Amino acid sequence: MEPIMMQNEKIVATIFHKNYLPFRQEDWLRITLLTPFLILGVYLLVTEWFSYFGAFATGISLYYYGGLIFRWIKICSLQYYLTDSGLIIYNVKKRTVEHYFEFSDFPKMTLRENAYNYGFIILGELEPVIEGDVPFKLFESQGGVNLKDHKIVLDNIPNVRTVYNLIQQKTKEN
């Protein structure tokens, strides 16, 4: 099913993506930090020793792991289309256009690619993985690990560099 478009607009290309959950650098950091917290929380709940802390630790861990599951559900329902005048992110399940970006006013893009030419393109400002004003100083720092996901991402794209270059070329033309 294709999205409803403007009268003179044509789909130039459909950007295909895989429907599995890709693990990003942020996800590996999240899993590394939260798995011991989850194990400790479940242990404290089972042994009924500091059960309030165990419930808190388990709840926080499951909340962040739930973010991975929700991202996977979102990835499975999205399709990406390049038109002659913009990029459409279309939700197949809701049958709505989630986002539409004209090439004349396109946001900043960031490319992340793995060794197998798969990757993702972040549209908009890049969220840093580690935040803080004074890096690597434990007691002077006012920040920490950023566990938020990026807002708009074109996920799981094979030959992502080709797609990235095509979008850049279209933005330069307009």
Describe the structure concisely for a colleague.
By secondary structure, this protein is of the alpha+beta class.
Poorly predicted residue ranges:
none
Tally of strands = 9
Mean pLDDT: 81
Q: Give the termini separation.
A: 27 Å
Query: How many domains?
Result: 1
Helices and strands, in order, run as: EHHEEEEEEEEH
Gyration radius from CA atoms, angstroms: 20 Å
Enumerate how many helices there are, as a single number. Answer: 3
Q: Which structural category fits the helices and strands? A: alpha+beta
Shape: elongated
Oligomerization status of the protein chains: single chain
Helical fraction:
25-40%
Explain what the structure shows.
This protein has 174 residues and is an alpha+beta fold. It has one domain (11-173). It is 37% helix and 26% strand. It has 3 helices and 9 strands. A hairpin with a 2-residue loop joins strand 2 and strand 3. The longest helix is centred in the middle third of the chain and has 27 residues, at 51-77. The mean pLDDT is 81.
